[in-house]
Amino acid sequence: MKSSNYTLFCLKVFNKLVSKFNKEEDLEVKNVTLVKANISMSYEEYYSTALMNTILGFIFSVIIIQGFFILFPSELYIYFIVLVPLLIITIITLTYYYFPFVRTTQRGRNIDLFLPYAINFVSSM
After folding, report:
1. Proportion of the chain in helix, strand, coil states, percent, rounded to 5
2. Quick one: DSSP state of residue 4?
3. Are 44 and 19 in contact (CB under 8 A)?
4. Higher-pLDDT residue of 113, 2
5. pLDDT tens digits for 71-89?
6. How many other CB atoms are there within 10 angstroms of residue 14's CB atom?
7. How far apart are alpha carbons 101 and 78 in whole angstroms?
8. Res 23: pLDDT
9. Residue 59 and residue 55: Cα distance in Å, rounded?
């Protein structure tokens, strides 16, 4: 699959940062995980996109919370300005971290589900 312009931009911005955390042994394991999940991105591209989306999620959540409290002022502003962006960051990060494992499990279930039909088809051929 061809990479989109957005993922290439994220890779260009965060390539040095993401590649600092790569070790040859870890890189192969991480790439195998993405291949098993049928995600056609390299490790660097996937995690640089995850980092960019986390940063953008933080920025947009702060802007939305500030806009909300300009319209509806409250004493709880300081709590929301801290808690909501942290919650958004956590959700985005955990989603990107666990997504390959969820996809791998889902593919395994689908294979197990359709394997008897495939065997029956091949044996009838």
Report:
1. 85, 0, 15
2. P
3. yes
4. 113
5. 888 888 888 888 999 999 9
6. 19
7. 36
8. 65
9. 6
CA count, 13 A, side-chain hemisphere, 48: 22
For 100, residues 6+ apart whose C-beta sits below 8 A from its C-beta are 33, 34, 36, 37, 39
Nearest in space to 76 (alpha carbons), one of 91, 68, 58 = 68
Cβ(51)–Cβ(10) below 8 Å: yes
- Specify burial of residue 99 (Cβ count, 10 A radius: 0-12, 13-18, 19+): middle
Contact 42, 30 (CB under 8 A): no
The backbone torsions φ and ψ at residue 24, rounded to the nearest 5 degrees and listed phi first, read: -55, -40
Please indicate, yes or no, whether the overall pTM of this predicted structure exceeds 0.85: no
Tokens for 39? Answer: 């995600």
Tokens of 42: 């390299």
Neighbours of 10 (CB within 10 A): 25
Question: If you write DSSP's letter for every residue of 33-75 in order, what string do you get?
Answer: HHHHTT--S-HHHHHHHHHHHHHHHHHHHHHHHHHHHHHS--T
Measured distance CA(124)–CA(26) in Å, rounded: 43
